[in-house]
Design brief:
With about 325 residues, the chain is of the alpha/beta class. The chain has a single domain (about 1-300), classed as Ribonuclease Z/Hydroxyacylglutathione hydrolase-like (Metallo-beta-lactamase, Chain A, 4-Layer Sandwich), CATH 3.60.15.10. About 25% of the residues lie in helices and about 20% in strands. The protein contains eight helices and 16 strands. The strands form three sheets. A seven-stranded mixed sheet has the order 3-4-7-8-9-10-11, with helices on one face. A hairpin with a 2-residue loop joins β3 and β4 (about 60). α6 packs across α8 (about 285-300). The longest helix has 17 residues, at about 285-300. It starts with a strand and ends in a 15-residue tail after the last helix.
Length: about 325
């Protein structure tokens, strides 16, 4: 079912202080949920390699967030992607609040090149690194409509409620010559997650799925996964899952990885564009490395609390 406006009824883990988020007009009701372990974060320098076209008409935009964890320095993306059709473009994710100036610059650059006007937003779920720029994007692009699971966004932005459109699995946003489809979120952070899929170039937008950091010192910023030859994908994938996807410790990740393989095969996915990882352009070679990290994280001992249980009295 293709949905156009008249048919609608209407880790390393990235961190920032709650105070900084509250200071943004869009962040008041969308604070990132707390985690027991938070690496100390510093803002990375903007990369000069972006925006980057990772498939015809699909542009990678945004910036890195640098973090330290266990004595190591990691970079992680809070990326957004612009999918440009013949008559309209759709912004997938709106980025972290700190990145809005960079995302706006990248959008303006692409629009100046002649891509179709930005008419739609698709956000995978209600978490700051994904929807943190939502208020500013809606304000900057007053004709744009928000698509996805729009639960609770009206509470943060009541002035934009009339521009919010709910989607179900299989619904599509028509961009002209291509569409963005809501698909099953196999690996998700929140219940309200949807993954996106570009039907023309077979690009999957999995939000927190395929989440991993990269090495700034090795020049990985702005590279796709296959170009970052020194990146230990199983290690950085397991680290992110350990810190940010805690539920994986209580699930059989073999089942999830099998389901992921099924989705990739069914959709004939050619490129994967994660919010928190480098884009994947060789699905057959790279996906098993990320899955190896997910499975390894599930076997790591629980370390989310400093409290130790005392031995029972004799």
């Amino acid at each position: 079912m293709v949905l156009t406006p008249p048919q609608f009824k209407g880790r390393n883990r990235e961190v920032s202080s709650d105070e900084a988020i509250r200071d943004t007009e869009e962040g008041a009701a969308m604070l990132d949920k707390p985690h027991d372990k938070k690496p100390v974060a510093t803002v990375a320098n903007p990369t000069h390699k972006m925006p980057r076209e990772i498939a015809p008409g699909v542009f990678w935009i945004g910036d890195c967030l640098a973090q330290r964890h266990k004595g190591k320095s990691y970079h992680g993306y809070n990326a957004a992607f612009l999918v440009a059709g013949e008559t309209a473009s759709c912004l997938v994710e709106t980025g972290h609040p700190k990145d809005f100036p960079v995302i706006e610059q990248h959008l303006n650059e692409l629009l100046a090149r002649g891509v179709a006007p930005l008419k739609y937003l698709f956000v995978t779920h209600q978490e700051t690194p994904h929807c943190g720029g939502l208020g500013r994007v809606l304000k900057t692009f007053p004709d744009a409509l928000l698509y996805g699971d729009v639960s609770d966004y009206h509470l943060a932005f009541p002035q934009y409620e009339h521009r919010m459109r709910s989607m179900n699995e299989g619904d599509e946003i028509d961009l002209g010559g291509r569409s963005l489809m809501a698909v099953e979120p196999v690996i998700r952070d929140l219940r309200t997650t949807w993954w996106g899929f570009d039907t023309k170039e077979r690009v999957l937008f999995p939000g927190d799925g395929f989440a991993y950091s990269h090495y700034h010192e090795d020049g990985h910023c702005g590279l796709v996964a296959e170009e970052a030859v020194s990146l230990d994908l199983p290690d950085v994938s397991s680290t992110f899952a350990d810190l940010a996807l805690f539920w994986t410790k209580f699930a059989d990740m073999n089942v999830y990885c099998d389901r992921l393989d099924h989705l990739i095969d069914r959709l004939n996915v050619k490129v994967i564009a994660p919010t928190h990882g480098l884009p994947i352009t060789d699905v057959k070679t790279t996906v098993p490395k990320v899955q190896e990290g997910l499975k390894a994280a599930a076997l790591m001992p629980e370390s989310g609390t400093n409290e130790k249980m005392s031995a029972p009295a004799a």
